[in-house]
Amino acid sequence: MDLDFPLRKIIHVDMDAFYASVEQHDNPELKGKPVAVGGGSKRGVVSAASYEARKFGVRSAMAGYIARRNCPDLIFVKPRYDRYKEISQQVRAIFFEYTDLVEPLSLDEAYLDVTENKKGNPSATLVAKEIRQKILDKTGLTASAGISINKFIAKVASDYNKPNGQKTVNPEEVIQFLEELDIRKFYGVGKVTAEKMYKLGIFTGKDLKQKSLEFLDSNFGKSGKYYYSVVRGIHNSAVKPHRIPKSVGAERTFFENLSSEIFMLEKLENIANELERRLQKSKIAGKTLTLKIKYSDFTLQTRSKTLPYFISTKELILDTAKELLYQSNLENSVRLLGISLANLNTEKKKEEPKKESVSVQLEFDF
């Protein structure tokens, strides 16, 4: 069987429980114990959880008190972002030993295009294995990897043999792999979308593949075309070494709930100040400002305004945020405020010349 689109050799590398693993590595007393990075107070939120903690249902973004309820022996440690960034830079340096086509997604994961690599190794599987070993030797931490013909399949595959494992989906295996895949494993299908798909009788990739493009468009809007393509192994997005951010933001969770706009002004000023710092560091500005409000019952509200000019200074950010804050009455007391800027003035990267779609015999060495 032929795949009628360009094939690449893509590796998705994902560090295993990164923040928590760093803490366990730096403090041997934590090894083998359930660890959560973040706050364990009523106001705290889990940033990351060790695999020992995950067995009890502890996961990132979970409220600290719920995590402690699920796992009474859970050990909370404060995050050390400078340390995580330091190790992330060591890991990325290893990536660049093999290819300059590295697209970081966060501190702990990245895509690598090794179709042509600096080592001249034709096997992406062996390259991934070598990279993971180097990461272990350099940092003492484990990483998992997925290897396949595009970014979508590589990312899905990297989760298959976690922790400290890897999975290769060869070109001739792509179609069967996707057809057998649980719909919840599809990257881009969240909990809500999965529930909707279940109601429509879509449980596996094979079920999804049987739905027409028109059906998916009518039920999932813009995402319909994406689902239609990826289930057929089509995802032509190239690895982009310099990802252009779509938005820049800052937010704060408060120790005590705030019940009046007056009490929020000082908080908003601090957030605006941090956002200005981040914008200046990246030398960018934006036109669309969004105010994020999370209430004490965890419901989320956003209010946005698009300006006719770019802004990046604290004063203009704060003025617009205040206007949005007073736009309508608060629905409840507030536990979190955030400000973000989108519609940035980053230059659009020159479009890559389109690669011709060619029929390639499945003899691509992985």
From TrEMBL:
<comment type="subunit">
    <text>Monomer.</text>
</comment>
<feature type="binding site">
    <location>
        <position position="14"/>
    </location>
    <ligand>
        <name>Mg(2+)</name>
    </ligand>
</feature>
<keyword id="KW-0515">Mutator protein</keyword>
<dbReference type="GO" id="GO:0000287">
    <property type="term" value="F:magnesium ion binding"/>
</dbReference>
<dbReference type="Pfam" id="PF11798">
    <property type="entry name" value="IMS_HHH"/>
</dbReference>
<dbReference type="GO" id="GO:0006261">
    <property type="term" value="P:DNA-templated DNA replication"/>
</dbReference>
<dbReference type="GO" id="GO:0042276">
    <property type="term" value="P:error-prone translesion synthesis"/>
</dbReference>
<comment type="similarity">
    <text>Belongs to the DNA polymerase type-Y family.</text>
</comment>
<keyword id="KW-0460">Magnesium</keyword>
<keyword id="KW-0238">DNA-binding</keyword>
<dbReference type="InterPro" id="IPR022880">
    <property type="entry name" value="DNApol_IV"/>
</dbReference>
<keyword id="KW-0175">Coiled coil</keyword>
<keyword id="KW-0808">Transferase</keyword>
<feature type="domain" description="UmuC">
    <location>
        <begin position="10"/>
        <end position="190"/>
    </location>
</feature>
<dbReference type="GO" id="GO:0006281">
    <property type="term" value="P:DNA repair"/>
</dbReference>
<dbReference type="InterPro" id="IPR036775">
    <property type="entry name" value="DNA_pol_Y-fam_lit_finger_sf"/>
</dbReference>
<dbReference type="Pfam" id="PF11799">
    <property type="entry name" value="IMS_C"/>
</dbReference>
<keyword id="KW-0963">Cytoplasm</keyword>
<dbReference type="InterPro" id="IPR001126">
    <property type="entry name" value="UmuC"/>
</dbReference>
<feature type="coiled-coil region">
    <location>
        <begin position="258"/>
        <end position="285"/>
    </location>
</feature>
<dbReference type="GO" id="GO:0009432">
    <property type="term" value="P:SOS response"/>
</dbReference>
<feature type="binding site">
    <location>
        <position position="108"/>
    </location>
    <ligand>
        <name>Mg(2+)</name>
    </ligand>
</feature>
<keyword id="KW-0548">Nucleotidyltransferase</keyword>
<dbReference type="GO" id="GO:0003684">
    <property type="term" value="F:damaged DNA binding"/>
</dbReference>
<keyword id="KW-0479">Metal-binding</keyword>
<dbReference type="InterPro" id="IPR017961">
    <property type="entry name" value="DNA_pol_Y-fam_little_finger"/>
</dbReference>
<dbReference type="InterPro" id="IPR050116">
    <property type="entry name" value="DNA_polymerase-Y"/>
</dbReference>
<keyword id="KW-0234">DNA repair</keyword>
<dbReference type="InterPro" id="IPR024728">
    <property type="entry name" value="PolY_HhH_motif"/>
</dbReference>
<dbReference type="InterPro" id="IPR043128">
    <property type="entry name" value="Rev_trsase/Diguanyl_cyclase"/>
</dbReference>
<dbReference type="InterPro" id="IPR043502">
    <property type="entry name" value="DNA/RNA_pol_sf"/>
</dbReference>
<feature type="site" description="Substrate discrimination">
    <location>
        <position position="19"/>
    </location>
</feature>
<feature type="active site">
    <location>
        <position position="109"/>
    </location>
</feature>
<dbReference type="GO" id="GO:0003887">
    <property type="term" value="F:DNA-directed DNA polymerase activity"/>
</dbReference>
<dbReference type="GO" id="GO:0005829">
    <property type="term" value="C:cytosol"/>
</dbReference>
<protein>
    <recommendedName>
        <fullName>DNA polymerase IV</fullName>
        <ecNumber>2.7.7.7</ecNumber>
    </recommendedName>
</protein>
<dbReference type="Pfam" id="PF00817">
    <property type="entry name" value="IMS"/>
</dbReference>
<keyword id="KW-0239">DNA-directed DNA polymerase</keyword>
<keyword id="KW-0235">DNA replication</keyword>
<keyword id="KW-0227">DNA damage</keyword>
<comment type="function">
    <text>Poorly processive, error-prone DNA polymerase involved in untargeted mutagenesis. Copies undamaged DNA at stalled replication forks, which arise in vivo from mismatched or misaligned primer ends. These misaligned primers can be extended by PolIV. Exhibits no 3'-5' exonuclease (proofreading) activity. May be involved in translesional synthesis, in conjunction with the beta clamp from PolIII.</text>
</comment>
